[in-house]
Amino acid sequence: AKVKIHLYFGAVFFSSLVIRGEKHEQAVLCSKDKTYDMKIADTSNMLLFIPGCKTPEQLKADQASCNVIHSQIAGFSNNYWELRRCRPKLKKLRKLLMEDPYEGPDSRKDQTLTFSKYTTEDLLSLIQASEEEILHQLQVIDACEIEGFWRILEFDYEMKLLNHVTQLIDSESWSLSKVPLRTCLEELGSLEPREMIEHTLLSYGRKYIDDGEVYFEMHEDKICRAIAQMLLQNAVKFNLSEFHEVWQQSVPEGMTTRLDQLKGLALVDKSSRPETIFLLKVEDLPEDNQERFNSLFSIREKWTEEDITPYIQDLCAEKQTVGALLTKYARSSVQNGVKVYNSRRPIS
Q1: Contact criterion met (CB below 8 Å) for 150 and 101
Q2: Which of 130, 136, 162, 183 has its CA 20 to 30 A from that of 96?
Q3: Whole-angstrom Cα distance, residue 12 to residue 108?
Q4: Residues 54, 62: contact at Cβ < 8 Å?
């Protein structure tokens, strides 16, 4: 649900704003690129609504009209909406698109149309964020537009596409920094839709033009991260040293795996013997600050700042630091010479 409003001061149009939120949600106000919490505030000064009212700046610019005139007061108020910049509420975006992930052109499920599909206009009505923030997040989660609807690729299908691309790079002995779009489409177009091949290159590479030809520089960290997720998703816990060996063997030749590529995706348990690693995706955690910390402290009682930062970084408001969040929601102590954080409240 959304309500569109326009701000006018005198006859000057300033901005177009939208109030977004469904019945069970706290309404937010969105400009073209920012999101604000809304709170009613009282004022001791009566606010008057006067049609055609001019600001002091306008009066200075129009010296000829500087006469005392009688104006009709259309209304008054003793309160106003106080706005505070807030994080866009984007978790719902992935949740909606994951109702019906795209499994490829041959998927029977996709042909039955039993699930909801969403256009840009649908998402603007359902997501509490500005248009620019929504469109940016669609890029972040590698969504693509198929027949007018925004879709997220089902992970196994995404890995199938990525595997086609990396195998072609290996067979052609291309540099990972110069993968030609045209040849990829020609060679792989018979296996998968050309749009899906290009989408995979856009998701896992940087597009550039050299001598009139389109090339992609592949992102090593993102490819290594995706392959790690594929290895970890079916295991409760994985022996760390064994995982690292299998992971390195699974990535394309020339790529190097590092644990820092897995921030916000997997967590290492250094207290177990042997050390283990398991899947813990930041996008699966609650969006609310307190609920996020409760969830993290139920997974692990004590965290180092290094380990917890990838899982709370996205909670930081404008100009807010991870340290400030930890001060508010956690209690610090020193354990074996290392500063750790635990919950301020009992975790059930």
Answers
A1: no
A2: 162
A3: 54
A4: yes
- Report the 10 Å Cβ neighbour count for 26: 11
Q: Which of 33, 34, 7, 30 is nearest to 19 (CA)?
A: 30
User: How far is 268 from 261, CA to CA, in rounded Å?
Assistant: 13
Say which residue the tokens 């295991």 belong to. Answer: 235
Closest CA to 2 of 138, 126, 137, 131: 126
pLDDT tens digit at each of 348 positions of the chain: 555 554 443 333 446 889 998 888 889 999 999 999 999 888 888 888 888 777 777 777 666 666 777 888 888 888 888 889 999 999 999 999 999 999 998 877 666 655 688 999 999 999 999 999 999 999 999 999 999 999 999 999 999 999 999 999 999 999 999 999 999 999 999 999 999 999 999 999 999 999 999 999 999 999 999 999 999 998 889 999 999 999 999 999 999 999 999 999 999 998 889 999 999 999 999 999 999 999 999 999 999 999 999 999 999 887 889 999 999 999 999 998 999 999 988 876
Q: Rounded to whole angstroms, how far apart are CA atoms 331 and 348?
A: 17
**Strand 276-279, strand 266-269: pairing:** antiparallel
Structure token digits, residue 220: 């090593």
Q: In angstroms, how far is the first alpha carbon of the chain from the final one?
A: 36
Q: Give the chain's length.
A: 348
Spatial CB neighbours of 257, under 8 Å, sequence gap ≥ 6: 224, 228, 244, 247, 248, 251
Per the rule left: phi > 0, alpha: psi between -120 and 50, beta: everything else, 135 is alpha
pTM: predicted TM-score of the whole model, two decimal places: 0.84
Q: CA-based Rg of the chain, rounded to a whole angstrom?
A: 26
| Residues 334, 212: Cα–Cα separation, whole Å | 58
User: CA 163, CA 169: separation in Å to the nearest integer?
Assistant: 10
Phi and psi at residue 244, to the nearest 5°: -60, -40
